[in-house]
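Incident log, structure service

09:12 report received: a user says their structure output differs between two submissions of the same chain.
09:20 pulled the input from the user's history:
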Amino acid sequence: MADTIKEKARALVASMTLEEKVSQMVHKSPAIPRLGIPAYNWWNEALHGVARAGTATVFPQSIALAATFNPLVVRSVAETIATEGRAKYNAQSKEGDRDIYKGLTFWSPNINIFRDPRWGRGHETFGEDPFLTGLLGMTYIRGLQGKDKDSLKVAACAKHFAVHSGPENGRHSFNAEVDSYDLWNTYLSAFEDAVKIGVEAVMGAYNRTLGEPCCGSEFLLKKVLREKWGFDGHVVSDCWAIKDFHENHHVTSSAVESVALAVKNGCDVNCGVLFPLAYDAVKEGLLDEARVDEAVTRLVVTRMRLGILGGGNSKWDDVPYTEVDCEQHSLFNLNAAAQSFVLLKNNGVLPLNMEKIKTLGVIGPNADNRSALEANYSGRASRYCTPLDGIRFFAEGKGGRILYAEGCHLYKDRISALAEADDRISEARIVAKNSDVSIVFLGLDPSIEGEEGDAYAGPDAGGDKSHIELPGRQAELLKNVLEAADGKPVIVVSISGGAVALNLPAEKADALIQAFYPGSLGGEALSGVIFGRISPSGKLPVTFYKSDADLPPFTDYNMKGRTYRYFNGEPLYPFGYGLTYSTFEISNLKVNADVDECSVTVKNTGSMRAREVVQIYTALEGCKERFTLCGVEDVKLDPGEEAEIKVNLGKTAFARYNEDGDLFTVVGEHIIYAGFSQPDEKSVLLRGQKPVSAKVVIKK
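09:34 re-ran on a clean worker, output below:
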């Protein structure tokens, strides 16, 4: 059928004039009535729910989904988003509404590598590890698109290609320089995974990579994406990135030249308004019309695969609007959020028993902050539950009393403009003094960390963070609560997209949870963890550092000194780390390198049914990385129960990319580790448990 679709697309494009063809190469494509082509807007977003177009289920942000280390959860989320996207499109198109954010081409997922915690958009990604990013990226794409390439549920888009991860304020002019090892083994690996499983679109990045603007890079778009990987979908520019060619990158001297460069090298549709100038580029001899035909044909193919061109009905046309933000989707949302919370420290205070607690203090700027549930690129849910809501509902249902104090502003030194600095700290002290247990909610929200132009607040106001310390007066608030509590338990919950230096709560708090941005029902899911209805099971998808001093310069894209694979210092909390309310043992590691598989025996040795994540790492002889994640598998066990768990290993378990981007087997004596964390010293110290290991000799 694929050939039939392409033949029909070529025939339709052949009937267009040049002017009509170039009109279809912008995100807001006008109708061509004489050919029966309706207007279509290519721009839609779905990082963690159908975004920016009214009501939709608001799932945990991508970085929170990554913390589940669970492809099945990610697949369920993506499938649900696609269902809601179809439901909204079906209903809105019948109303003649073809506006922005109303189409079926979703510019998600973001599979860039979160290489530096200062990057504001890092929470849109699946973390710092190429294997986990590739695994979850493929899962997300499959969930969005469905199983049938010729009848897409919705179209996914892998972005931002490539070598893109801040700084936000320099993205329109920055040149990312990186050596060939890091290029292939870190930055391009997940994109290759996405292409190999049939992602329909790829979005170019704003920046230059190795001197070429990504949305017009001959190397990235032609030599790698098309020729090496065989990509057959369409390429979209990031929004208004084409004008950067002549205005900021200075690789062209005019808008027409910029359009010619982008289209010539493989960019098919422009998020922006410049691609109609392809008409002038053809007339001036700067661009071959055959390349325009190729680009428009790719776009028509996508619309035909979606069933919105070509005369045939899509099998997804009957998805009803009642699917949007329905009760079943709320249950998926709660499950995803519950698996995303990472328990970093617990001296035994958690889970809380309200039979023994009369008064519970809820304190902090993120305790009742809806924005910290939503993250960026978000829809609007029909129901929200902040941590304060979730805790109050449960605790008061058990006869407990809740005392609440905001404590401080998220980033300013006061809440009331006419007040003196620290105007809510005394109230927080009073709450802590009058509570049996205090829970302090600190961190960030998407007004502080996010995309250039969207993150508008905070001392840095530009998307990125200049430091990783808690902003504003939050550290002072926590010191005061700890002092006022006078030995009574203090629990800290950090809600943020990127890693924050949590040195004070790591040292002084009785328990510490990292919540990331947990979605519209995050407070309900979090209360389930706090009160023990659910055991926490999330793992950190990024390294939590102690200080900015541990980090290389933000503008240095080389991986040396970055992420768990190359960082030689002591992290505060390592990638892959996270506790549960139970305890587990792992044993009997068996490795079959011939089929890239291993097995282990896992036993729940604690007193609570819980989920754990088996993590497989390899340390390859002669390679730059300390060790690399290459397999994950979750397991749920009752107390005393044990099971044999098989884990499929990724493509780089015993291989690396060479300078040409080809995988080669690394010959030698390697070590494979299996555990519930990485095998680094800090993880072993924090867990009191070493992963099991085995030597594997690869001869060819």
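09:41 both user submissions now match this output. Likely a transient worker issue. Closing.
09:42 reviewer note: The chain has a mean pLDDT of 96. The first strand starts at residue 28 and ends at 29.
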